[in-house]
Amino acid sequence: MGPSYAKYSYEQMKEILDQDGFLLSGSWSHYLRQIGYDAAEIYPDIRPLQVKWARQRGVKCDSDQWRIQIAIEQVKAFQPEVIWSISWDMQLLRAIRSQVPSVRLVFGWMGSDVPALDGWDVCDCVLSCYMQNFRPNPTTLIV
Question: What is the pTM of this model?
Answer without folding.
Answer: 0.82
